[in-house]
Amino acid sequence: MKNKNNVSPSLNVLGHLTLFTGLYGVIGSAYAADTSSTVKKNSDIVVTANALPSLYAPQKLSGTKFTSPIADTTRTVQVVPHKVLQEQQATTLSDALKNSPGVGAFFSGENGSSNMGDAIMMRGIDTSNSIYVDGIRDIGSITRDTFNTENIEIIKGPSGSDYGRTAPSGSINMQSKQPELYTGVDASVGYGSASERRGTLDYNQMLNDTTAFRVNVMGDKGNTKGRNNINHEKYGIAPSIAFGLGTSTRLYLDYLHVQQDSTPDGGVYTVGLPGFSSTNSLLNNASPVSRKTYYGTNADYEHDVQDTFTSRFEHDFNDNLTLTNTTRWSEIRQQYLLSAVLGRSITTRNGEVYGTRLMNSSNTVNKILTNQTNLHATFSTLGVGHSVSTGVELTQENYNSYPYAFASNSVNLLNPSADTAVTPTTGYGSFGRTNTLGVYAFDTVTLTPRLSLNGGMRVDSYQTHYIGDSASGHSNLKQSDNLFNWKAGALYHLTENGNLYANYGVSQQPPGGVDFKLSSDTTDRTSRSGENINFTPEKAETAEVGTKWSLFHKKLLLSAAVFRTTIKNDAELDSTTNEYVQNGSKRVEGYELSAAGDVTDTLHLMAGYAQQNTRTDNTNSTSDGTNTLPFTPKHSFTSWATWDVADNVTLGVGARYVGTLHKIKDSASGTPSSVAHYWVADSMAAWRINSTLDLQLNVYNLTNKKYIAALNRSGYRYTPGAPRTWMLTANVHF
């Protein structure tokens, strides 16, 4: 066998942009070992160059709707490539997204209800419902593993014209691994802190000149260091086969099965932290409880099963016309019981202080069936070039929740015990279905070699039916509407390698999102979702101006952008009536700088900085004491760099900074209004013993920094950041 070929939101923004443009000259001088060579022969000059792209800087997005290179895409785009996932041992989506500034799991849920799975905040907005796999919405509040992931694509700004209803902040797409025309094996076995054990297998078999089979397998089991009672166990397999590779007609068939069993983490009570106060003297004088403290019960658990089947058919009519048809069926079954502390209704018994432990339970099934047909064409009319992508999507999403509930119980706030009986109560089932027909079209118009315009629009017609029972009675609700999303941009090439661009877009998201938690005017008006069926869609308008520079034979991409997103029709809880009203508006504005690729042949870099200024109007869901958005760091920075010290030794180091996080302003008193900013550093060392074996050591949180990674809505509990951990991995290739 053989190996695989391998409008300014800030006064100081001008200074940062000036520094950014100066990087061209600074990095250019550092790049002494240029990969190109010039040979003079007689009067001719022949230039040869290494055409292999950087593994750190993918040049195109994977979807059929994106026809321009990333360097010419008029939006902020970041890609976490497979190379970085391997080097960091970033095994979950949440871990991988730490490479994007301002993106993270900063919000740990509302009151006693903890967020489950990949609860991602981006540009001040919950983006959990805008996660896609191969361009198709991935439903369910689960923790996604990266064992079958090639790249992770992060598009910030308006994505409604790309995908239909999306969060105003943008979208996240996980690109799956696909069969290729080679035969080889990549396998890994690792052991680390808290008895973490992980093994993966990536086997690609070339069956003939046009057919290949690939299977990815994963097993992962361990505990969470720094947290008592928290553990996980998961397994996954992803076989796929491709026909017609290298020909004009191709067919891909993929299947994914993942099973996860774990103990969910409800967080730690904020007693004793700066800003905490209580009328109870025992609490008011208490020191912070240990970060290891577990407030759950021995009965807590989470069980998730995901099954997904995808077929993709591609046909090239000629070099300028391609038809793609994708069908996917996916089902996610999730059951869990999660206990979370809530520091209200405090009582004192026998010199001990007790609060409430809320029992959050779920027994749900999410299903999606979709068919997408796309036609991509390139042509010229009257000397003007066009790159057109148009298509239609038919999607049905189903949500079923079965009766399954437990009564809350009391918990010792300073010395909790997990050995507590849990009591079942009456549960209320619900059913939701949304059918969507989406039609879209995009065009990139090349007016001159330097100037191009791009635009696109999408119309979605959807029907939602919700049936549910609650303590308030029975609901049988229906809603149908149309969503119109669009975008327009312009790009001007200053040089062959650098450009300026501007983009404006509108995205809309209807009430209910993808969770179908709809309510009527008379039922559940105070539900935490605020997703009233009669609410108009939330509307986001985003403007962005930026520049991108593709250097060193397209091996290094530098980007800078200034953006502003305004969100209207935001549903917020009125603190006077305790009912949700739709009169809120939000604004997120700022700028981002990023670099990704090869600085030299041996030095590789992925880094980014974001400043986010936020404000809210006519709304109560603001951070405590201010009118800014909660759970949104004003400043954030991330970096990862590796250096090939020798032919067989690579060293890596990364640092990330997250600014102060504020909680939501609500009726809670005596809880911390914010948590402090922090720096965390990670490192990696790899030793290639021979062509088939290498060893890799990762150390996370090198300085053992104690920090708070996420805070809940009212500030009663927090999620502690992981302490110093390590992982030793043996990688085999043949």
TrEMBL record:
Domain TonB-dependent receptor plug: 70-170
Membrane topology type: Multi-pass membrane protein
Keyword tRNA processing: no
Compartments (UniProt record): Cell outer membrane
Family to which this protein belongs: Belongs to the TonB-dependent receptor family.
NCBIfam families listed in its UniProt record: PRK09840.1, TonB-siderophor
Protein name: Catecholate siderophore receptor Fiu
Organism field: Rosenbergiella australiborealis
